[in-house]
Amino acid sequence: MLPRSVSILGVGLLGGSIGLALRASGTDCLITGYGHRRPTLDAALSVGAIDRVADSPARAVEGADLVVLCTPVGLMGSMLERIAPALSPDAVVTDVGSTKASICRAAGRLMSDPGRFVGSHPMAGSEKRGIEFARADLFAGAVCILTPLAWTAPAAVRTVEGFWNALGMRCVRATPAVHDRLLADISHLPHVLAAALVHMQSEAGLDLAGKGFLDSTRIAGGDGALWRDILMDNRANLRRSLGRLRTALARFESLLDRPAALAAWLNRAAARRSAVLARKLREVTPD
Asked: Are residues 154 and 237 in the same domain?
């Protein structure tokens, strides 16, 4: 069962998509939105992503059953601090941040009942930002990582899991530390690599770039300030990921004079990627 009242703090791509997905699910819950820019809030109202606008974070969460923090990672702590005194005793709080350890620590420090906080990371999105890119189907078939801790209330976990399930997501669980370590490899480092590939090109090379290059570097089109906060927050894990990447690149370099071994190395990567794609397809379209 979905909450009767949901507050979304930050109504850009993810926050706006949450509101649209809630409406598409058929729920009649009240959706309150808060954001820094009035034009963004007006756009969210006009497309039906929210039902009403609050003029402060504290007012946005008053009476809410579920609060979803959709602000950038670097603002999560200050947002938690602003809403904590105004939360209802039974309110559940979650977020959509791409890192989890620092956000969960902030919730533990700032909320009077940190057991009501459940970290979330919906693995859905785009390099685009803004309510104009919000979609009701953004979360359909994707994975959401929940990061409950030992003291997290089981009822709060059920609420958050049911919420994401209703939006079409499949939930898995991990500790905040494991989440941040794995995401450094599969999300944060790939963003850095896409940016590095763009930076290393000459203008003459870019003039010749085709679809393969644009596909490989698509995520480099993301917002720099948003990604700066993510990368800085997870820099210890990123340094370890970079070490593993250097090892892989050194292995590749050692194969440049060994055609058969190089082909085998590339084929193993292709087979592993195909297996991942097949698994993802089965998750979206189960028997």
From this structure: no
Domain that holds residue 27: 5-174
Q: What is the number of domains present in the chain?
A: 2
Residue range 121-158, pLDDT digits in tens? 999 977 788 899 999 999 999 999 999 999 999 999 99
Q: Beta-carbon neighbour count of residue 30 at 10 Å?
A: 16
Q: Model confidence over 252-272: pLDDT tens digits?
A: 999 999 999 999 999 999 999
pTM tops 0.90: yes
Give the tokens for residue 22. 């809630």
Q: What does the alpha-carbon distance between residue 247 and residue 238 come to, in Å, rounded to a whole number?
A: 14
Q: Report d(CA 182, CA 272) in Å as an integer.
A: 17
Q: What is the DSSP letter of 121?
A: E
Rounded average pLDDT over 175-196: 97
Last residue of a domain, one of 150, 174, 198: 174
Could you tell me if 164 and 187 lie in one domain?
Answer: no
Bridge partners, residue 53, by sequence: 33
Q: What's the CATH code of the domain at 258?
A: 1.10.3660.10
Question: Whose structure tokens read 């409406």?
Answer: 23
Give the Cβ contact number of residue 129 at 10 Å.
16
